[in-house]
Amino acid sequence: MPRDVAIAARKNRNAALVEAMVMAAVADGSIAQREMEALIRRVVERPEFEGTKAEELNALIEGSAKKLSQAKNLEDVLKSLRERLPDHRNRLLAFGLAAAVALADRRASREELGLLKTFQMALGISEQEVQDIFTAIESGQPLNEILGEPKERLYAEVMVLVSVVDGKVSAKEASAIVEALAGDPVFRDLSMDRAQLFVRDAMQALSDDGMAKRLVVMAHSLTTHAQRLKAYALAAKVAKAGGNRPAELHVLDLLQATFGLADDEVNRIKQDV
């Protein structure tokens, strides 16, 4: 059942995020009070853990510590993290949370820095992303400033949202998405490999979070009217390729309401596509 799968994916993701933080906390042999406080504070501020009760968090921390103590080697742990964090954004979040714990006392030990470097390599985090995360943590910024959704990813996601709403992606819808990724100017600076990664990430995010939450993310991240019009236009093209079925038109209505687009703007876009 889709709901059960989504709930399981969320639990696995959250357990992996906590594991990364616990690993950072124990990297130098013991968990300092500041590190534990940083771990709890980061959990509380992250929307991924919204609704998690105190006893559930304690169970996550204890379970992570026990699992790590029983692990045969570090590579097995890293492989497990990669499997539970398949998209780049969650891997970046895991690294950021681990770094926040490691830097809780304003300095990281050699062991902690070594672990973070291992995380970076295992999770595919770039040097620029590492630098941005460290700068954010040292200046007290929330991690969502660094994890802001790339506009291209959201443009890809809005197309995915329309295509999967009825439970399956038709060949024509898939073709429309590929054509947009390959030829639309908003994806000009995006390699096809990166574009395909964005599509996979979008599908995972929809599975984990659901349509309602992802619409909120789009509304918060696509801030200009031009960006919202572009996102709607991309969605409308995919809907047209799929035959403008009722489920697809319903998503377009939701997008119009979410983005605050006027009827005449929407009608013009539908005519143009």
Any overview of this molecule?
The protein is an all-alpha fold and 273 residues long. The protein folds into two domains: 2-145, TerB-like (Orthogonal Bundle); 151-272, TerB-like (Orthogonal Bundle). 75% of the residues lie in helices and 0% in strands. It contains 14 helices and no strands. Helix 1 (2-26) runs antiparallel to helix 2 and helix 11 (211-221) packs parallel to helix 13 (246-259). The two termini are 35 Å apart. The model has no long low-confidence stretch (mean pLDDT 85).
Task: Output mean pLDDT.
Answer: 85
> Structural class of the helix and strand makeup?
mainly alpha
- Number of separate helices: 14
Number of strands: 0
CATH class of the largest domain: Mainly Alpha
